[in-house]
Amino acid sequence: MANDIKTEVNKRRTFAIISHPDAGKTTITEQLLLFSGAIREKGTVKAKGKKSNKFAKSDWMDIEKQRGISVTSSVMQVDYDGCQVNILDTPGHEDFSEDTYRTLMAVDAAVMVVDTGKGIEPQTKRLFEVVSHRGIPIFTFMNKLDRDGREPLDLVSELEEVLGIDAYLMNWPMGMGKNLLGLYDLYNQRVELRNSETDEADVYIDLDESGQVSGDHQFTQSTIYSQALEDAQLLHEAGNPFDRELINQGKLTPVFFGSALTGFGVQTFFDAFIDLAPAPGPTRLADDQIIQPDDPELSGFIFKIQANMNPAHRDRIAFIRLASGKFEKGMNVTLERTGKTLRLAHTTQFMADTREEVAEAFAGDIIGLYDTGQLQIGDSIYEGKQAIKFADLPQFTPELFMRVSPKNVLKQKSFYKGIEQLVQEGAIQLYKTYHTNEFIVGAVGQLQFEVFQHRLLHEYHSEVDMIPMGHRIARWIDPADLDPKMSSSRNLLVKDRFDQPVFLFENTFAEHWFKDKYPEIQLESLL
Ligand code: G4P
To answer: Which atom of ligand 1 is nearest to the CA of 30?
Structure first.
């Protein structure tokens, strides 16, 4: 049994793609689905221009109906090269929320897609920081090589400087845009030639011992090739050496070049990714013990809850990352927080184009559990008698704030109840002004406010006024250091839900002003 589980677990690759909007996350996901045979045509992943009302984007049912399968459909599972690949979505744009960060707590690796025309953009950097904190492998795909972009060397040094990670060049572009000849593949010791008619790679030529292509090939006469060869040799001598251990620890990122749109270099990337990305490993428990994935008893934690905002479909889906064991439909587990038995009858797994009932799943997989409101983000579930509680999910520093108050003062009770439950569920963060206790909600994305307001109204019958605030930065301070004179027109002193003091600043200028004035005071942020 444990052997079975081990074999299955070793086939799993569970990862997320992180990028700034428009870098090509959807396009590369689609290529993976195409290679794996999960879809047959492009355009299935995201049907553009079909946004209806503003809630539709986050409405589960609507998303499925309107966008076919959308990459926002959270988890996709495909077979690739004998592996079960689970791709977890990290929604960007207007769908960005704390769930985006929390999803990164449920993966074993991340793929970072960078637009070669733009380099490292803000959202990539923020998502990178969250992933990097976990010390998991990060693979970089430098995308849009079919266009003229920035100098590859420039991109790589920006990556290393801005993100503070070392790069290992898996391959190196021979030209770009219209002049793209192909890839000089250092990892596989071959050249991958672009077929200028189909734009796909169909010619691989092995390198000889000196790193040159063997045989007589026209392209070797071009200056593009000789330049790439020179660069590659320089990288070989002066670049970081390949080190699997450092890759596993997330300290060295393998860098690939290619074009998600044309598919060039994508297969090479995926093949190496499947090879190098780890299978699910141990998971940390609240008491600092660990649980191994091949432990025969099922356990898992909830990292995301997707509430359906359509009042006709009140169902919610709790996403569970399985940490150990084997899941079988209908089995009973214990919900650690309440000690109650939970029957895993209505579960779902996520295929490329359908949602299917899951019959079985293994550690590393994600299952969706239909929930009527008894589950919370961060909950642990386990099979057997030995209680299992996973380490708490981190809290993330909010970057947007709104003042919130009930429209109808006579309905304060439902307002308080709604806020309390939604905060507990992890849907939003709650702050209060330090002395006057006015309510402020904090979020990392605008969508969280919309979901919050909508759910308060529909689930708790509480209509609220929400006033956006100009503050963007939250910094915690040790209560012992707090001095009333620190509070000024350049900041706002609030307390979090555990009554810890927090300063809100409108910008880094205001934060720096504070730091200059009180250099001895430590300002802390969450993750
Ligand atoms: P995202 O999910 O990261 O937000 O990005 P997405 O894949 O939707 O890609 C954003 C835009 O960039 C799309 O163009 C897409 O076609 C284009 N793109 C993605 N990869 C490549 C690439 O390798 N080369 C080039 N040249 N373009 C790429 P769009 O015009 O916004 O949408 P569409 O009408 O083409 O779908």
So the answer is: 7
pTM passes above 0.85: yes
Residue 393 falls within a domain, yes or no?
no
Cα 70 to middle of ligand 1, angstroms: 15
Question: Is residue 143 within 8 Å of 114, Cβ to Cβ?
Answer: yes
Of 28, 108, 13, 41, nearest in space to 353 by CA? 41
Task: Return averaged pLDDT per consecutive 10 residues of the chain, 527 residues in all.
Answer: 85 96 91 78 48 35 36 70 90 79 96 98 93 96 97 96 97 94 94 75 82 84 92 89 97 97 94 97 96 97 77 72 94 96 76 56 90 88 96 93 93 92 90 95 91 88 96 96 91 95 96 96 93
Supply the CATH number for residue 175's domain: 3.40.50.300
Cα of 44 to ligand 1 centre, how many Å? 14
Distance 261 CA to ligand 1 centre (A): 7
Report d(CA 320, CA 75) in Å as an integer: 11
CA-92 nearest atom, ligand 1:
4
Residue 414 CA from chain centroid, whole number: 34
Query: Do the annotations mark residue 471 as ligand-binding?
Result: no
* Domain of 466, in residue numbers: 400-524
